[in-house]
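Figure 3 (text version): structure tokens given as input.
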């Protein structure tokens, strides 16, 4: 992979995109930067109190949306759906390869 990028399983985020996102969150006072004491070239990014409140609001909205979407399913059916979707995802990741896996 060319250029600087952050790699998380199944996700590739270019550094420029990450910096822009962190700048936006900092402008909204949802995160704060602090120098990394072990490496002056890096910053440690932390949620502010406002950021933690926003995260809780978003988590609540996500849970409500999932409950609404999955309302017709029993807890057992929801679990089975999750298992089936995970199985499909694993299958297609093996077929197409992910950023950290070679294509088979």
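Below: residues designed for each position.
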């Amino acid at each position: 992979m060319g250029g600087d990028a952050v790699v998380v399983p199944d996700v590739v985020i270019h550094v420029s995109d990450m910096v822009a996102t962190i700048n936006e969150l900092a402008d909204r006072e949802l995160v704060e930067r602090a120098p990394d004491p072990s490496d002056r070239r890096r910053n440690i990014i932390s949620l502010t109190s406002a950021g933690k409140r926003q995260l809780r609001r978003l988590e609540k909205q996500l849970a409500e949306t999932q409950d609404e979407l999955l309302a017709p399913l029993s807890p057992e059916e929801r679990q089975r759906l999750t298992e089936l979707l995970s199985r499909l995802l694993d299958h297609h990741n093996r077929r197409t390869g992910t950023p950290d896996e070679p294509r088979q």
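The mean pLDDT is 87.
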